[in-house]
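FAQ

Q: What does a record look like?
A: Structure on top, sequence underneath. For example:
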């Protein structure tokens, strides 16, 4: 940071800490000045499978460890029967074991063998899902499994949904099993609601049966998609109205070691043929939420897809959780790079190729013959800028640029806003003329205020910037109103520099109660409730009130306010964002507006600076909406964001 920027930051901080002006300051929107075109894709979201964001979260599957693929590699406390319990009722005796000979396929090698050995009752398995199975009275649930009879007379399996006390909530009976693997499907309607139900599979016939891919799905998923998404979680994401969605993750993408790099091809096709793997964050990925589902979700919510692939190297933090493994970044052997590069090129064909192409046909077979209109591709994530990275990134970048010049590649400049990797990453970007680079930073609120001019002096002739991960973390890394307001102040400068800052997304997006790997997060949830943080509402207000051109705003000195004005030519609206990060109210008037009437829509977000919206919060802090006269004097309360929309 140069001396001028430091002095500007000091001045801004003194403004924020200063008392409000004795008389109303005038905010004059310079509608006669030349406007600045800003990115149409500025505010989006970033989804990473962290803190049970996918399995047990956004992905609507209700059965945990459905294919018996859990292992100590996922979590040292786990095994293939984690989340499953043997059931012996009515005096019956039996056992269960996991085998891997003659599986469904090589990608799904393990399955359970249930043995009914003696007695006249019932032997079976039960699963309580992810912290219990939620059922809603009257709603229908699709059950399926793959099974085969191994020994004894072929019999039927009874499928029961029970409360934790054993109350029957729904049941059905499968047809008699056959000797080869076959899929069996039924629908069960819940007779009552329950938050902690369980699935029970029961056999009344002596013998042995093999079981795999045991699944229970609510029919009411987001947009009623099969193999779809939890409706309430998906809807609150859609309600942000993001311009894009980055997926499937950050560190998860380049993985915990070369064997853990995320390969998109393992995540498409029938779910029983997809390849599961350990999650970087010490749990399990079924890949039921795979690339097809990611692309489809982007389309459903009107967000441009931004997939991220590894740059041929694994995460520099690799091996920190696995005893005896090699620690640090490693590159794929160079003789494997041609096939890996082809994998990246095939992803573009999968997204955009015609249904007659090799990979476009696989998209069409999944039910989407039309292209997904991919524009962006991230290569790398927070990588240490090592020689191995440089060499492999260049190979991938050159190949994509040569075959798909229509694709905008997003590079990476390390995990921090300064430092060696940041500087070296920018050198790589400048040498190769990478269109966009991905900057990341998780910092205290004061950092965001002190770096308010960060992008004012970026060279406009170099790469554009995507701030792929950022958040202001407050005391105990909580998402407070204070952190949200400092983010809002910072976001006004992203609009001001929307010609160089092309995209930005808060991170992480989702975190499940009891399974949180990282804080703060934008949305917290459990099996029945969703808590929208105050930071969520800031992101939503900016995304739903974005514009395509930025207009200068002048105001008096030492007001303590931070402002941004944008015009949305699509709707004809003029939108003013006013942030007061300080501790005193500031009175203001708006001038310079020539079009529209004298009324406008006002959104106000304010309250206790340390307020937090949590799952246990009885009355969450949310924005208020009102119709105001723009000719009147108004107040910006302490620690507040005000959005004024003039026009439709």
């Amino acid at each position: 940071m140069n001396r001028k920027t430091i002095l500007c930051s000091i001045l801004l901080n003194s403004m924020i800490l200063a008392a409000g002006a004795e008389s109303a300051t005038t905010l004059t929107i310079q509608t006669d000045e030349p406007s600045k075109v800003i990115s149409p894709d500025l505010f989006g979201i970033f989804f990473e499978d962290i803190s049970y964001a996918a399995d047990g979260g956004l992905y609507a599957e209700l059965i945990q460890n459905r294919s018996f693929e859990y292992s100590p590699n996922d979590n040292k406390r786990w095994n293939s029967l984690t989340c499953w319990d043997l059931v012996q009722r009515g005096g019956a005796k039996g056992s269960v074991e996991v085998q891997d000979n003659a599986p469904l396929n090589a990608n799904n090698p393990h399955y359970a063998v249930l043995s009914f050995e003696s007695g006249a009752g019932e032997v079976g398995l039960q699963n309580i899902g992810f912290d219990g199975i939620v059922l809603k009275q009257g709603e229908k649930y699709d059950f399926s499994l793959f099974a085969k009879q191994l020994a004894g007379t072929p019999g039927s399996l009874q499928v029961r949904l029970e409360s934790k006390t054993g109350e029957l909530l729904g049941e059905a009976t499968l047809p008699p099993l056959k000797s080869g693997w076959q899929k069996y499907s039924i629908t069960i309607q819940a007779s009552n609601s329950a938050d902690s139900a369980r699935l029970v599979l029961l056999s009344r016939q002596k013998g042995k049966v093999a079981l795999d891919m045991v699944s229970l799905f609510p029919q009411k998923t987001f947009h009623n998609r099969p193999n779809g998404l939890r409706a309430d979680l998906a809807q609150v994401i859609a309600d942000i109205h993001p311009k894009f969605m980055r997926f499937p993750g950050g560190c998860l993408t380049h993985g915990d070691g070369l064997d853990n790099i995320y390969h998109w091809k393992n995540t498409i096709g029938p779910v029983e043929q997809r390849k599961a793997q350990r999650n970087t964050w010490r749990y399990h990925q079924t890949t039921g939420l795979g690339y097809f589902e990611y692309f489809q979700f982007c389309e459903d919510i009107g967000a441009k897809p931004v997939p991220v692939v590894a740059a041929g190297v694994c995460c520099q933090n690799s091996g920190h959780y696995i005893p005896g493994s090699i620690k640090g970044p490693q590159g794929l052997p160079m003789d494997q790079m041609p096939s890996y590069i082809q994998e990246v090129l095939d992803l573009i064909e999968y997204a955009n190729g015609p249904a007659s192409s090799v990979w476009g046909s696989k998209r069409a077979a999944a039910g989407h013959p039309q292209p997904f209109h991919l524009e962006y591709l991230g290569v790398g994530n927070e990588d240490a800028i090592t020689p191995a990275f440089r060499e492999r990134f260049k190979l991938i970048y050159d190949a994509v640029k040569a075959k798909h010049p229509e694709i905008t590649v997003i590079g990476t400049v390390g995990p921090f806003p300064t430092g060696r990797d940041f500087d070296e990453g920018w050198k790589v970007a400048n040498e190769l003329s990478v269109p966009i680079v991905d900057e990341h930073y998780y910092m205290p609120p004061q950092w965001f205020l002190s770096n308010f001019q960060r992008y004012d002096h970026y060279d406009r002739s170099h790469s554009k910037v995507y701030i792929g991960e950022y958040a202001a973390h407050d005391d105990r890394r909580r998402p407070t109103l204070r952190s949200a307001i400092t983010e809002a102040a910072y976001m006004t400068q992203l609009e001001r520099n929307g010609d160089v800052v092309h995209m930005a997304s808060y991170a992480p997006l989702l975190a499940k109660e009891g399974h949180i790997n990282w804080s703060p997060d934008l949305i917290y949830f459990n099996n029945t409730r969703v808590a929208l943080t105050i930071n969520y509402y800031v992101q939503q207000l900016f995304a739903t009130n974005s514009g395509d051109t930025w207009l200068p705003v002048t105001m008096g000195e030492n007001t303590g306010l931070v402002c941004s004005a944008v015009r949305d030519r699509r709707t004809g609206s003029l939108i003013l964002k006013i942030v007061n990060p300080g501790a005193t109210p500031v009175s203001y008037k708006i001038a310079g507006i020539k079009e529209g009437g004298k009324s406008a829509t006002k959104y106000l977000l304010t309250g206790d600076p340390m307020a937090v919206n949590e799952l246990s919060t009885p009355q969450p802090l949310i924005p208020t909406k009102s119709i105001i006269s723009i000719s009147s004097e108004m107040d910006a309360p302490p620690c507040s964001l005000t959005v004024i929309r003039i026009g439709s």
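Q: Is there anything notable about this one?
A: Residues 588 and 634 are 5 Å apart (CA to CA).
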